Amino acid sequence: MPASAASALPIEVRGVSKSYGPVTALDRVDLDVRSGEFITLLGPSGSGKTTLLLVLAGFIRPDAGSIRFGDEEMVRTPPHRRNVGMVFQNYALFPHMNVFGNIAYPLRLRGVAAAETARRVGWALELVQLAGFEGRRVDQLSGGQRQRVALARAIVFEPRVLLMDEPLSALDKKLRERMQIEIRHLHGALGMTTVYVTHDQREALTLSDRVAVIHEGRIVQVDAPERLYERPGTRFVADFVGESTFLPVRREGGGLTLHGRPLLLDGGPPAGDGPFFLMVRPEKLAVVPPGDADGMNCLDGTVKERVYQGESVLLYVTLADGTELAVRSPSRRETLAAVPEPGGRIRLGLHPADTVVVPEDRS
Amino acid sequence: MSGPGASPVAPNADALARDAARERRRLLGLSIPALVLVGLLLVLPVGWLFYLSVVEKDAYSLVHYERLVQEPAYVTILWNTVEVSVLVTLICVLLGYPLAYLLAQLPPRAANLGLIVVILPFWTALLVRTYAWLVLLQRRGLVNTLLVNLGLIADPIPLVHNMTGTVIGMTHILLPFLILPLYASMRAIDPDYVRAAASLGASPVRAFWQVFLPLSLPGLVAGLLLVFVLCLGFYVTPALLGGGKTYLVAMKIEQNVNTYFAWGASSSLAVVLLVSVGLIFVGLHRVLAIQRLFGVR
After folding, report:
1. For labeling, which of A68, A210, A288, B261 is most exposed (least CB within 10 Å)?
2. What pTM value is reported for the model?
3. Which residues in chain A have their CB less than 8 angstroms from residue B297's CB?
4. Domain range list for chain B
5. CATH for B75-248, among 3.40.50.2000, 1.10.3720.10, 2.60.40.420, 1.10.3660.10?
6. B191 vs A: CB within 8 A
7. Which of A264-270's residues contact partners 24+ apart within 8 Å by CB, and which partners?
8. What is the mean pLDDT of chain A?
9. pLDDT for A196-221, tens place per residue?
10. ipTM (interface predicted TM)
11. Of residues B192, B201, B294, nearest to A80 (C-beta)
């Protein structure tokens, strides 16, 4: 009975634009979601990610563009005929119905017989690990349980597409991380094409097959999590996904230089004429003994502050030109011993494989 | 030693308890003027009213209540009152619900403008509005003249000095009392509920009946009861527009006091009115409590 990957549909978004007066929420967005793929729309608030989701659900009519689920053009189809499961940020569980009533509602609308309805509600509740909760009232549920019921309601009618609008943002950190794993498992079991919206980059990386980064109404990069994090295409993506400091680099001859020293790069310098920036992530830097620069790009500075954070130690280092960098070292005995006290000189090494140069954003 | 551990004594426990007690006394002191006012102006007069209704010729007696059930005139008046109240409440719901729904769907700025239009009649004196209806509805009034000139009716129809006029006037005056609480409760309904219904496959019509309407019920019940209760004791409008044919409880009370100086008869009617309203509110509380049981706030 569960939806199989075969019933999932690819989504094709072409040239979707939406303006609110002078404000452009979506600017000619193109996006392809493969059948059965889990894709996350990631962006800061006001970037247009929720607008795009609501366009997919049919709650917002775009000014122009095409939305196709499989071969079917959907852009003019009203929401109740799109057969799309949606999980809302505040869950939107009907307070005048109990858990069974909520999950059975889409089946009731489709005229499913009572016995079959009960069976399917039971199946959906089991899937979200709430078997036996049929008779509970919505206000008797905890946040995590509401989340699961909302999920069960969105999948019980086997929609071809599942949309989720920041569904975990109301949960505390521990529960959120557990639900992330469960959503992944659920997606693995059901194989529905899933579009997920979040502003939490770690959540996006954890959950998704691919992540689409949205900025000012445009999709700036779509990539698998690892590629997105390790090889961001622009300074905005590098800045939004993970923490980074940007150091300006200059093109000299065939290569790039940082602070006058040639920059060692795996794969050679990027094309185009810049300006370019070296992306420095706190966890990619290693504390190296003074004088040792074997095959690494080196940065020299003074320790400004040292913050013990349990599993890691965060150092703020001021470079010779006044730029401040963050360095994260695991709190292991040997690394702790190598970290100087505030005021001390420090040398940081960046492996060429971790050396990433990004261009300035075009705006 | 670091870390938590039970302190051998409870430091400052007595002083903190004294502070709390002082704060309670101060709050009580602040509410005394209001309590005195309520006592003098509400408890005392209502108690007096109850007393008058059970006294006849300086002896306790239930004769005033017996009259209410035995004399056909009184039975008719009570029945008329309920009839008019139910009718007016029903018409208010039929007119008010769509209007409140429309206002709740409008963007806030337009909705506020609409609300001002709804409340506007409140800024005109009740008496003026009632006389205005008299002018509009009379035999040669605007409405009858229009209908005759349009050829819809041959002769003017009796729109006033009867039940019709009473109901029209009362509906007009009481409609805002239904719309305001209903509008407030509709505004509080998260639009995501209706969106969720649509995403699950509900057409707009079904989403309204199965999701929006049930969620708006508490506001509807509140407005509906407010209108009904106000109807029960309405005086000016039925007195002027009813033309003596639609006799309601409040009018009988006035007549008993002003014409016959029958305080006992008036008091018993007033007590019946008061107790009915009280029972309705208890009933309302039950209904709302039951809805809370189903999870409706």
Report:
1. B261
2. 0.81
3. 95
4. 75-248
5. 1.10.3720.10
6. no
7. A264/A295, A264/A296, A264/A297, A264/A352, A264/A355, A265/A352, A265/A355, A265/A357, A266/A352, A266/A353, A266/A355, A269/A357, A270/A357, A270/A359
8. 89
9. 999 999 999 999 999 999 999 999 99
10. 0.83
11. B201
